[in-house]
From TrEMBL, chain B:
Protein name according to UniProt: Peptide ABC transporter ATP-binding protein
Domain (ABC transporter): residue spans on this chain: 287-537
Annotated TM spans: 64-92, 104-137, 183-208, 233-255
PANTHER family to which the protein is assigned, alphabetical: ATPASE AAA-TYPE CORE DOMAIN-CONTAINING PROTEIN, OLIGOPEPTIDE TRANSPORT ATP-BINDING PROTEIN APPD
UniProt keyword annotations, A-Z: ATP-binding, Cell inner membrane, Cell membrane, Membrane, Nucleotide-binding, Translocase, Transmembrane, Transmembrane helix, Transport
Gene3D superfamilies per UniProt: MetI-like, P-loop containing nucleotide triphosphate hydrolases
The UniProt record lists the keyword Transport: yes
Any one GO CC term of the record: plasma membrane
Record GO terms (molecular function): ATP binding; ATP hydrolysis activity
Membrane topology: Multi-pass membrane protein; Peripheral membrane protein
Domain ABC transmembrane type-1: 62-251
Pfam families xref list: ABC_tran, BPD_transp_1, oligo_HPY
Species per Swiss-Prot/TrEMBL record: Streptomyces colonosanans
Family: Belongs to the binding-protein-dependent transport system permease family.
UniProtKB/TrEMBL annotation, chain C:
Record-linked InterPro entries: BPD_transp_1_N, MetI-like, MetI-like_sf
Main location: membrane
All residue ranges annotated as the ABC transmembrane type-1 domain in the record: 111-312
Bilayer disposition of the protein: Multi-pass membrane protein
UniProt-listed PROSITE patterns: ABC_TM1
Classification of source organism: Bacteria, Bacillati, Actinomycetota, Actinomycetes, Kitasatosporales
Family: Belongs to the binding-protein-dependent transport system permease family.
Localization terms from the record: Cell membrane
Protein name: Peptide ABC transporter permease
Length: 351, 615, 328
């Protein structure tokens, strides 16, 4: 096993209004040093719960979390301190991620001095090195968060996470609250930082295009489970799990247009995570599952999770597509293709 | 109000300091010859049963009354706030237990608890102070708990935890500074009510005991003879009210200062107005807006989020309005729908909706026109429905109000509309309340509600931003179907340029309150000619482009919305700027078929596009 | 443990009302236990000897000892507590240390007058503050009519800072003694209710007025109200149907907290008006150092407060079923 982050059978529970809710159910994932795993999924899929559990912010979390070959367990303050030295989290909303009553310098100083005692000069050096690393000018240090733009604040948040030289960085939807033009800069910066510092990264987002641009491997979550893990291009080119396919079909594409969907889009609503469906959790909504093909009742009775382990392209599905069942999902290789959307001229419409 | 408050507080402080020294002797001097006298020139308030001057006693009692009140408040506040703030940094189980304890204590009214403990601690000033501290502590604990819970939920607290900071540091560095201000405010107000409660205890005989005296005791003694002489009872009462109100007003003043809003500055009319460009009018036009401007006066000056937007929509057309945050796209939509916030002011040169100029309509006619001709779908379906009304009521109220449709018929129509947005089981849905539906369902109901009126124009303000990507596609497909079936024009506002490219027929790109480019949606990917649009398109990560190729980033930031823009708003960030761009504002003018651009120096056509055009 | 809590979770999902009622009942029992134990502890923990205090300093030692024995104060605490609970279960609240009369009779005679006073005052508070706060909010929304707003906040500040017993004294002096418009004290028919109710209700009305206004302003800023405005509904329907119900839950929650405070407030106000209620009985026995009566009245008032709290919670739950789900 390479170093970096390894999760084994991690289960996360919340105190819901009706008793405990299992937000993440026996998830295993490996993130080797210097690589990025993109974690995608819709709201309620448990991706943020997983992130918070890894850094020790979850209510209750079982399973093994290994960082750099060392296992972390226990939930007391000393355990959290040991873990914090290794794993850091960057949050979604740059507006609330920084203490509004502390200057950027104070925020970074607090982080840099969290585990090691630094004298004033080293601390100052460290702060200016951090700012430079995330592409901010030195004068920023004496400003308050509200005096910075959203993009700058997110850079500070990244700098704070990197201040402890973590082995693993978890980026939880860090570009979701940002505008497109700033988003690109943050993505580029993250790739750059990883190349220079070599940390392992988990990049969580619902934005598949953003995930694609930074990740080496993509893991897709649905209702507390990872349903498919594969190297980025493999997963995008030939998604094996019907949920992944629906997800990919739903992503608007500037240069390609939407693929016309032979399979109808997802039926129904996401089930209640407190009472997940039996067998394959996707079966009630699956376009190729027992609802459409009654002979596939194995999906209702048997959980496909365990058979998937071990393959390089893991998909937790009893019926991964064969060549004629579903053609390889070539995603609009030709950028000129317009997909289904021929430009419509309004006059042609009935009025 | 500030002056009055400070005067009241100042007088109280001075009285408390000098009162005992000045009038203390007079207050304690018995005069057997003048027992229980009414008000006279010598004794303005009369005398008590030992013949002591009541005015002197009243003034001399200020110090003790205030001192005890402040002591009780501080004791209670310290205990309560400590308890409440602790909830923010302890574990889940301890937090729940503390919360339950606070709840339990709060079930009893403070005065009752204070009386109980005053009896328990033994009647006397000390006992009363402790009793009040005990009685008021749970209230402080609750406030501190609520405030601290808000801090605990923030990401910066989570970040501090991830950094492994220790509890005392979390408490001192992150929690307490954030809750200090509202707590101080509360303590001030509480001091007033503690003073009153303390007087109440003395009044009952549970507080200050003779020969000491405070206002409550004086009131109690005065009350015994209220039939013959009201003033000895009324005067201490006035003193208590005076002090109570002083503290109350101080709290009020502090709260005001905390949320200070200065008067908005005078609005100046913008100087530059771009030249008028003739547009080809069409019979099909649903909406035609020229030179729309929105100004919002704020403390820091007038913000001008929309600076001269012109747009038109034809029947059955989906037009995307795309821009980054702060570009003014949402306010443009709200201005068109006449739903701007109260203080925002909008102006336009022309605003024709369904062929009639809005200026020619009375207020009532305009309301009627908007009610029947226009519908709005908002960004967040979670908050766009009234939580206390059933879905059925909210779907039918508009037709019932404006078309006078009978109830049964309106319900029938609602069922049909729900069917159209692929929500069967309509009857049950109509009876449900918004919180029983998922986000996607709610947005579909919102679309159904919007089409109940058969509007000519639907404004959809970021209708899918709060939804998941699979639901997003369903919603967009629905909107496209509705415009196809009903020939409704749809103004689709979004920040997601890829979504707009896939959804709309035509796209308007907004930047700094102006429309910089108007082009067919299919041309977005390769046919943009404005430098901003081009840069924006190139900065979008894509599912097909080469991953190793770095994404384009736009340097700098949009212009200050407070300031005036003399030239092109994109001037500072533009790679192709020239001298003219700094001085003259470019106007949206035709460039090709269905393509308009506000740029003095449009970019050349992209290679591939040029080849296509040549073909 | 996990299966257990999962089962409880399933129960909660299917029967939120059952869980709500169970929790509420559990809380009531714990608080009742607190009140009973508190009142039991009161007479045993106060500094000095309550019997001697009641009988006077110069009472004969053997008389005191006999009285102590009569009340069972010479037994160990556990036996006393058990006996106390047994008596309570039979509705026996003990006898007055001074007069020797059963306290239960006193309570039975005086409790209705107190409750009537509190409920009347509460009704006045609701009738004035709910519509008043709504109107004030609609008038002063978005910074309109700044002068009205100033008058409103100042007036309610002063009113809220006005203690009930002081107001009672002032009202007595002004309207009853000087102008002789109302009876000065006692319960002499409907006219007698005016002043005590006014004294009790004024400050809570001011507090609730402010709360209702703030809550209404919050609702006016909500997204769903903008959505309702987009439908161009008539003002009447907009405010009564879309605004009022949403301000009601929050406002009534605060109002529900005011009712127990009103009950406690009766102690002071009843003393001023010599009202034949339980509050004045308590005030008198405090003065007479008759701690057996003080203890019993604290118990009765505390229990009344708990019952009122329960009723308020149930009413709120019926009004806003979501709160049931949220709380459980």
């Amino acid at each position: 096993m390479s170093a970096g982050l390894a999760l084994h059978d991690v289960t996360v529970r919340h105190h819901g209004p009706f008793g405990p809710v299992t937000a993440v159910d026996r998830v295993s994932l490996e993130v080797p040093d210097g690589t990025t795993v993109g974690l995608v999924g819709e709201s309620g899929s448990g991706k943020s719960s997983l992130a918070r559990a890894v850094v020790g912010l979850a209510d209750s979390c079982s399973g093994q979390i290994t960082v750099g070959g060392r296992q972390f367990r226990g939930r007391g303050v000393p355990d959290r301190r040991r873990l914090g030295q290794q794993v850091q989290l960057v949050f979604q909303d740059p507006d609330t991620a920084l203490d509004p009553r502390m200057t950027i310098r104070q925020t970074l100083a607090e982080a840099a001095g969290a585990f090691v005692r630094l004298d004033r000069r080293t601390r100052e050096q460290r702060i200016s090195a951090l700012l430079e690393r995330v592409g901010l000018d030195a004068p920023c240090a004496d400003r308050f968060p509200q005096q910075l733009s959203g993009g700058q604040r997110q850079r500070v948040a990244v700098a704070r996470a990197l201040a402890v030289d973590p082995a693993v960085l978890i980026a939880d939807e860090i570009t979701s609250a940002l505008d497109v033009s700033i988003r690109a800069a943050i993505l580029t910066m993250l790739r750059d930082l990883q190349r220079r510092m070599g940390f392992a990264m988990v990049f969580i987002s619902h934005d598949l295009a953003a995930v694609r641009s930074v990740s080496d491997v993509i893991a897709v979550m649905y209702l507390g489970r990872i349903v498919e893990v594969a190297p980025t291009e493999d997963l995008l080119r030939s998604p094996q799990h019907p949920y992944t396919r629906t997800l990919l079909d739903s992503v608007p594409n500037l240069r390609g247009g939407w693929r016309s969907t032979a399979e109808p889009l997802l039926a129904g609503e996401v089930p209640d995570p407190a009472a997940p469906p039996s067998g394959c959790r996707f079966h009630p909504r699956c376009p190729v599952g027992p609802n459409r093909r009654p002979e596939r009742d194995i999906c209702i009775t048997q959980d496909p999770q365990y058979e998937a382990v071990g393959r390089p392209h893991q998909a937790a599905c009893h019926f991964p597509p064969t060549a004629d069942d579903c053609p390889p999902h070539a995603r609009n290789v030709d950028p000129d293709a317009n997909g289904d959307r021929a430009p419509r001229i309004p006059r042609e419409l009935p009025s | 109000m500030g002056v009055i408050t400070l005067t009241m507080l100042g007088s109280l402080t001075v009285l408390a300091m000098v009162g005992p020294a000045l009038w203390g002797q007079a207050a304690d001097r018995p005069n057997p010859s003048a027992v229980l006298q009414g008000p006279t020139a010598g004794h303005l308030l009369g005398t008590d049963h030992l013949g002591r001057d009541l005015l002197a006693r009243l003034l001399a009692a200020t110090g003790l009354s205030l001192l005890l009140a402040v002591a009780a408040t501080l004791l209670g506040a310290t205990a309560g706030i400590t308890l409440g703030a602790l909830t923010a940094v302890v574990g889940v189980r301890t937090r729940r237990m503390l919360g339950a304890l606070i709840n339990l204590l709060l079930a009893f009214p403070g005065l009752l608890v204070a009386m109980f403990f005053a009896v328990l601690f033994g009647a006397g000033a000390g006992g009363a102070v402790f009793a009040l501290a005990v009685a008021y502590a749970p209230g402080f604990a609750r406030i501190a708990q609520t405030l601290a819970a808000k801090v605990t939920e923030t990401d910066f607290m989570a970040a501090a935890r991830v950094l492994g900071l220790r509890r005392h540091r979390l408490l001192l560095r992150h929690v307490l500074p954030h809750i200090a201000e509202p707590l101080m405010l509360n303590t001030t107000v509480a001091a007033g009510s503690t003073l009153v409660a303390l007087s109440g205890l003395s009044f009952l005989g549970l507080g200050v005991q003779p020969p000491s005296y405070d206002w409550g005791l004086l009131l109690s003694q005065g009350l015994d003879r209220i039939y013959s002489e009201p003033l000895p009872a009324v005067a201490p009462g006035i003193a208590i009210v005076y002090a109570g109100v002083a503290f109350q007003l101080l709290g009020e003043m502090l709260a005001k200062a905390a949320a200070r809003r200065t008067r908005p500055r005078q609005m100046a009319e913008p100087a530059v107005r771009p030249a008028h460009v003739d547009r080809t009018a069409s019979v099909d036009q649903v909406l035609e807006v020229e030179d729309l401007r929105v100004a919002i006066p704020t403390a820091a000056g007038v913000v001008r989020p929309v600076r001269g937007v012109s747009l038109d929509l034809r029947r059955g057309e989906i037009v995307g309005l795309v821009g980054e945050s702060g570009s003014g796209k949402s306010l443009t939509a709200l201005a068109i729908a006449d739903l701007l916030p109260e203080h925002a002011k909008s102006t336009w040169r022309a605003n024709r909706f369904l062929g009639t100029d809005t200026k020619s309509l009375t207020r009532k006619e305009r309301r009627r026109q908007l009610a029947t001709g226009m519908a709005v779908i908002f960004q967040n379906p979670a908050s766009a429905f009234n939580p206390s009304l059933r879905i059925g009521t909210q779907m039918t109220e508009a037709v019932r109000a404006h078309h006078n449709t009978p109830r049964a018929e309106a319900v029938e129509q609602a069922l049909t509309e729900l069917q159209r947005v692929t929500l069967p089981a309509g009857h049950r849905l109509l009876r449900s309340r918004p919180f029983q539906l998922s986000g996607g369902q709610r947005q579909r109901v919102a679309i159904a509600t919007a089409s109940m009126m058969r509007p000519d124009l639907i404004i959809a303000d970021e209708p899918t931003t709060a939804l998941d990507v699979t639901v997003q596609r369903q919603i967009v497909d629905l909107l496209r179907r509705i415009r196809h079936d009903d020939a409704t024009a749809i103004l689709f506002i979004s920040h997601d340029i890829a979504l707009v490219a896939n959804t709309c027929d035509r796209v308007l790109v907004m930047y700094a309150g102006t429309i910089v480019e108007n082009l067919p949606a299919h041309a977005l990917a390769t046919g943009t000619r404005h430098p901003y649009t081009r840069a924006l398109v190139e900065s979008v990560p894509d599912m097909t482009a080469d991953r190793t190729h770095p994404l384009r980033t736009i340097k700098g930031s949009p212009p200050d919305p407070y300031g005036e823009i003399s030239g092109c708003p994109f001037y500072d960030r533009c790679a192709h700027r020239q001298d003219r761009c700094a001085q003259e504002r470019p106007v949206l003018s035709p460039l090709g078929p269905g393509h308009e651009i506000a740029c003095w120096h449009p970019l050349p056509q992209a290679q591939r596009e040029a080849e296509e055009a040549a073909k | 443990m996990t299966t257990m809590s999962a089962r409880l979770g399933a129960l909660a999902r299917h029967h939120p009302w059952a869980v709500f009622c169970c929790r509420r009942a559990a809380r009531l029992i714990v608080s009742l236990f607190l009140v009973v134990t508190g009142s039991f502890a009161m007479i045993r923990l106060i500094p000095g000897d309550p019997v001697r205090a009641a009988l006077g300093v110069d009472a004969a030692p053997d008389l005191v000892a006999a009285k102590r024995h009569e009340f069972g104060l010479d037994q160990d605490l556990l036996t006393q507590y058990r006996q106390y609970l047994r008596h309570l279960a039979h509705g026996d609240l003990g006898v007055s240390l001074v007069t020797g009369e059963p306290v239960a009779d006193l309570v039975r005679a005086r409790l209705p007058a107190t409750l009537l006073l509190a409920v009347l005052a509460f009704a006045c508070v609701l009738v004035v503050a709910l519509p008043g706060g709504l109107i004030a909010a609609v008038w002063t929304r978005d910074g309109r009519r700044p002068r009205t707003e100033l008058v409103f906040t100042t007036a309610t500040s002063v009113m809220a800072g006005m203690p009930d017993f002081v107001l009672a004294a002032g009202l007595t002096a002004g309207l009853a003694v000087s102008l002789r418009l109302f009876p000065v004290s006692g319960d002499l028919g409907p006219q007698s209710y005016v002043l005590p109710v006014l004294a009790l209700a004024l400050a809570p009305t001011a507090v609730l007025l402010r709360i209702v206004r703030v809550e209404t302003l919050k609702v006016l800023a909500e997204d769903y109200l903008r959505a309702a405005r987009a439908k161009r509904l008539p003002a009447f329907s907009l405010y009564l149907r879309h605004v009022a119900p949403n301000t009601l839950t929050a406002s009534l929650t605060v109002a529900g907290n005011l009712l127990p405070a009103l009950i406690a407030g009766t102690v002071l106000v009843e003393k001023v008006f010599a009202w034949p209620g339980i509050g004045s009985a308590m005030a008198q026995s405090v003065a007479a150092q008759d701690y057996a009566v003080v203890e019993a009245t604290v118990l009765v008032l505390g229990a009344a407060v708990l019952v009122v709290n329960l009723l308020v919670d149930l009413a709120l739950a019926l009004l806003d079923p979501r709160s049931v789900i949220r709380k459980t």
